[in-house]
Write a structure and sequence with these properties.
This protein is α+β, with helices and mostly antiparallel strands. It is built from 2 helices and 6 strands, in the order αββαββββ. Helix content is 18%, strand content 42%. A 6-stranded antiparallel β-sheet has the order 1-2-4-5-6-3, with helices on one face. The two termini are 26 Å apart.
């Protein structure tokens, strides 16, 4: 990985912001192939106020969103469009499975691989793990859809 992707670099690349920015750091990045990123899950996340107060669990759709944001970073770097003003949109999700709950204190590790790449669209597969145990997996498609 040539460039370190801390939170500042991530925010330069994608438009998401608190409370919807779900990637804290990129751990590995091989443009055109794969990316590994992490999300530190804390009790301060706003969704835990209602999901569920007595038994806080990270919503599955937000785990998939974290994988999609990670994939967006991979796509933008692969297409050499980081620090640009483009927005990456979901087009579809397939084979989504949730295996275990994600709770406060967990470190969510997302690994996303490119399956198919075109100039303005990509199909990717992603997994999310906690302590090396699979918590979610999905295939998803996304496209460049406009300006930030």
């Amino acid at each position: 990985m040539e460039t370190e992707y801390d939170i500042q670099k991530i925010m330069e690349a994608i438009p998401h912001r608190y409370p919807f920015l779900l990637v804290d750091r990129v751990l590995e990045l091989v443009p055109g192939e794969r990316i590994v990123a992490l999300k530190n899950v804390t009790i301060n996340e706003p969704f835990f106020q209602g999901h569920f107060p007595a038994n806080p669990i990270m919503p599955g759709v937000l785990i998939v969103e974290a994988m999609a944001q990670t994939g967006g970073l991979l796509f933008l770097v692969t297409q050499k469009q980081e620090e640009n003003d483009v927005i990456f949109y979901f087009m579809g999700m397939d084979k989504v499975r949730f295996r275990k709950p994600v709770i406060p204190g967990d470190q969510l590790i997302m690994e996303v691989r490119l399956i198919n790449l075109r100039s303005k669209a990509a199909k990717m597969s992603g997994t999310a793990t906690v302590d090396q145990k699979l918590v979610a997996e999905a295939e998803f498609m996304a496209t460049i859809g406009g300006k930030k």
